[in-house]
Amino acid sequence: MEALGYIIAGIGVFFVGLNLLSSAMKRLAGRRFRLNFAIWIGSGLKAGTVGFISGFLSQSMSALSFIISSLVGAGMLPVRRGILFIFWANAGIGIMIILAVLNIKIAVLFILGLSGLSFAFNKPKGIDNFSQALFGGAMLFFGLIMLRSGAEPLAAMPWFETFLTRTQTSYMLSFLAGAILTSICQSSTAISILAISLTQVDILSMEQTMMIIYGTNVGSGVISWILSSGIKGTPRQLIMSQVLFNILTAMIFVPLFYLEVFTNVPLVLALMQSLNLPLEQQGAMIYLLFNWGGAVILSLGLNPFYKFMSRFWPATDEENWSRPKYLSDDTPDTPEIAIALLSKEQENLMQHLRAYPQLLFEQSDQKENTIEALHSSYASISREVSSQAGETAKQHLSHNTMEFLLLTQNKQKQMDNLEELLHYFTLTCIRLSPSLQEKFQNTFLQSLDFLLHTAGETEASSDVVDADNMIQLTRDKGQVFQSIRAAYLSGEDQLDLNERNTFLELTSIFERIVWTLGRIARFQHAQKKLE
Angle at CA 351, nearest 5°, toward 473 and 439? Predict the structure, then answer.
């Protein structure tokens, strides 16, 4: 039971760590951070080199593939470079079997403790997102260590060795044994070393050991595939790259094995025997050759591999919504161009906000998920706008340019307030009773859609008159809202107490939405006078 407890706890710790890591990476992924990161891993060669070193040090492709998927999901690493990173991380892990097993448990525990203290107490100041990312990554590794600790006693059981020895009757059975045992024990390195050890004492032949080693790599991919079941979009492309790396490489090496065994064509086994190395070193070299061969072959076919991944696991709607239309990491440093692009991105965000009331007109069972996706994607683009505005403000600007930029930053804050109100308003509306939904559908939602549509047109317009009209539309409507509330609430028999309270709350939020739109219109007016 204790082993089972370790396995279940390890899975739970793994997913908590993954969640913490992913959310921290999204907050860390500001424009300046991404620019620095792009320099560090800014080419295919650099991505492959860093992947190789990371694989060598971590000895866990399951953990690494999830960490890289978080970086890709946060926009810090292009998918193509992430895939290359995965390929060569496998090659790095292949080196370690020659040096036996590197025990990183102590290092993980130290990082887990120190980053956890830093994250909990926010010390030192200003690195809370980095501390959370480090803590999440350490938890992810610790979860895998717990999984392995729970599964290790299985390897000591008599049936385990019996299972391996019975594979002598079939090479394919040896392959399946390697895959299954790796899936159970969470370590292709450990199963490969065990098979090599049994080869040294003549329990297994070198041919069986080769097939077990090939199977362990496929089993490692199965682990990643199972753990990624809840991940979608481009992050899943990275996880499936690891899965397909092992499967495709096995599809190359396993046929070569059968070709060599049944036709006596000198291939991998002949190459190992020609080196005149001890049996255990021959086995280690086979493991190394499998992973290096896969990295080289798949790197040469990176373009078709990337197209295949993009087709079968495309970006989600949330990812597409989260991408800025006008801002990018190579946005020119010229203040005038940067500010013009900021204005276009704010125009894009205004159109983004209009999706909230439009969702309420649709018939769908997935409204709440879509609303949360809209909320998350808006926050992502808003961070880009704020980051770019902050970078632009550090440059030497004329008086008018600086004033326009300040108006842009203040307007962005009001747009963020508006989005929060719309998010809460929309979530509340989808949970209304049918009677209240009908009331809001025919009055407030139509008005809200009209106001947001007008605000978007005003943002796109260069005419100050449009901003004046928007100000007039949103001028203080306190008495109007009071009359509406009184008219609806006078029907005591139509609304119960909970509905009345909900109605009052929603009309209050709607009033704040209108007031916030008025604030935005005033900033639009001031900007258009400066243009």
Answer: 55
